[in-house]
Amino acid sequence: MNPESVLPARHAPGAPSKAALDACLEDIGQPQPGALALVLEVAGHAYAKAGTLVHFSAAGRRCGWVSPGCLEGDVLAAADAAQADGRVRLLDLDNRDLSDVFSGSGAGCRGRQRVVVLPLAALPGLHPILASYREHGKALRLSYATQGRLCMQTGALQAEWSLPVDVGTAAAETDGAIWALQLAPLPRVLICGAGPESEILLPLLDELGWRVDLIEPRSDWAACRAQVERLLPVTPTEGGRYDAVLVMAHHFGHDREVLATLAGWPQLPGYIGLIGPESRRDDLFATLPGSVRERLGGWLESPAGLPLGGRGAAAIALSLAARLQTQVQRLDAEQGQRCGRVPESCAIRTHEAPPC
Predict the structure, then answer these.
(1) φ/ψ (deg, to 5) at 50
(2) Which has the closest alpha carbon to 118: 19, 37, 47, 31?
(3) Would you say 340 and 141 are in contact if contact means Cβ atoms under 8 Å apart?
(4) Per-residue model confidence as pLDDT tens for the chain (356 residues)
(5) Distance, CA of 165 to chain centre
(6) pTM score > 0.70 for this model?
(7) Which of 57, 228, 299, 337 could lock 212 by a disulfide, CB 3.0 to 4.6 Å apart?
(8) All domains of the chain, ordered by start, with CATH?
(9) Which long-range contacts (CB under 8 A, 24 or more apart) does 234-238 make?
């Protein structure tokens, strides 16, 4: 597969579910792996956007959703069938008709989704592709053709498969169509320090799909260490891998050391937030070299977070998580500009095989 010839991919807003991705990676090595559903295309409004992943295990466990529940029966039935016969299912989940609001599932989204359901047993070589995508911060480009040809690429890794298709599930109007998507990398944050809000913030960020690295050597907050992906002993001297940094040790000396190190990073992340009032930021800057103030002065947000109201640890955690999600929105915009973003994904009409 020639990387230069891969179809121009349409940007899928937001990274896919980290939980569904991890469930898939764990399941691939099982004697009887399950199935993976991928939303290829959306028209109108839908609960799940293009690029959404849902994992189904052979034991009946699921991770992820394509709807609030009204369409899940069709997807689950397709996953069971794909696991049983090893054939791909292409679903057309269409509830744009106004009558669907008052009958049937009662869905009111008025949208249409094309969802491909892939049997994991038919995808040898998938694990290194998904593992590299998860770990190395590179986008995942993929294309799927109704003839059953699937291509994936992330960084220097690439793979393609020709899969048997259950023709009964492929609508005639999609014959010969190709879908090409680019999935954004999982966002990554470095959290320097912990406090009472961490017990709420860290699990929330994990649920939102953030990869979290934590620096916290103090024994008082030892429980927080089990809630992150990586525990670091000190602040890294280079930070190119991070999309955001939160400075929140609630300790003047610790925060001062972190700010001094961040100022030396060749490339600053899109967001750096400091817990505490503006006066605390000013006090910290007053004890740091002028070069640190010049480097971070227009970059550092203090107080960190969105002003949502409320008091206490839970309100602070929600404020910080919401602020980080606005960073995801900014990353989306940048990815979309590079990738030729469109409001929703759509099929590329062609009768040629997808170049990989």
Answers:
(1) -55, 135
(2) 37
(3) no
(4) 443 334 455 656 566 789 999 999 999 989 999 999 999 988 877 778 889 999 999 988 999 988 876 777 888 999 999 999 999 999 988 776 555 555 555 555 667 889 999 999 999 999 999 999 999 989 999 999 988 999 999 999 999 999 999 977 655 456 678 999 999 899 999 999 999 999 999 999 999 999 999 999 999 998 998 999 999 999 998 877 899 999 999 999 999 999 999 999 999 999 999 999 999 999 999 999 999 999 998 899 999 999 999 899 999 999 999 999 998 877 766 655 444 443 344 444 443 444 45
(5) 28
(6) yes
(7) 228
(8) 3-186+344-349 (no CATH), 188-304 (3.40.50.720)
(9) 235/190, 235/192, 235/261, 235/262, 236/190, 236/261, 237/261, 237/264, 237/265, 238/265, 238/266, 238/267
